Input
Amino acid sequence: MPIATLSALQASFALANSGGMVRSRHLPNRIATRLRALLGGEAAAGVLLILVAAAAIWIANSPLSHGYHDLFHDTLAWTPVAKLNTLHLWINDALMAIFFFVVGLEIKREVLSGELSSPEKRRLPVVAAMAGMIAPALVYFAVTGTGYPLQRGWAIPAATDIAFAMGVIGLLGRRVPPSLRLFLLTIAIVDDLGAVAIIALFYTASIKIGWLVAALVVLALMVGIGRRHTKSYALTIGLAVVLWYCVLHSGVHATVAGVAAALTVPIRLGKRGDSMLLRMEHALVPWNEYVIVPLFGFANAGVALAGIGMSGLVDPLPLAIGAGLFFGKQTGIFVSVWVAEKLGFAPRPDGATWTHVWGVSVLCGIGFTMSLFIGALAFPGYPHLVEEAKLGVLTGSLCSALFGFAILRFLTHRPQAA
Output
């Protein structure tokens, strides 16, 4: 997810801040600033995810494993939403809806006024992102075949975790040209949009028409209010919660409501150069980076190796996912960029060598957050396959991170200071 654009967003607010639009005492941004300073600036979110994933794996294979499982999967004594009766469901179906809401805000901003706002800007990232989703799926099917239920996991290696990838790039400093960072972010935006579409189209349970109609009515109301450029945050958030509740019960995965609600938020700039969309994105991104995504990672990355073992890496499912992330992602993205330039369709990013493009293509194989999320959706009723999927995601992501870092660190040159 392209949450690493927070710094650019904060910079834009700083320019308009002379009127007191955003205050330094804003709690989530203060927390984010402290953590970035502690964990390494731009790499902070990625470093935090690495630590969280490592902690989850260690706990899941320690004497604390039963407590870890019970914490997230035991039925809650009380819940305000009967359908969400475990902490794990609250994280995956409620908190992740906020994650997708932020994704939707960023998609709308980029499409209307950002790096996807013109055909020239869209060409290369869209082609690269599409190839980066198709190639891993083909690798996956090549390994698993099309038999049920393994065929349901084809989308798991199609996603990129931008926080991890940008974390690795942050550790490389000036070795990565700014144009490549922007290229990676724009790929991630298209990648996220594709993942949302995949979840809505391919991982939807049986539809309950009444709830779906109610959701569409609420969404239509939000669209109408958004076109009037409302300034009522309470009304917008209240309707978004109602929309989420209706979608949760409709059979469509509840996180789709997050993106749908975000697309109705007004983006028109006010007198101070801000908008409801920018304010919401600015306020929510730190919570996504340092609370929601790490909590999701901790709840979902704890693969228990006792029933699988490292020999399980050669089982069809983890092998297909790992190979899809490591080989499929880099092949699809690198080849698409090469073909686009050779055909004159779109040039590669300014100042980037083919080695740079290769390294960033490899880093796109880091599929932590979204891949784990899709893995949980792909195999309902097959807990052993969910655990195997986690193993494949973690292995493929680790290989992509290490190999991509090595390419960009040892096969490229740091640009000379001006």
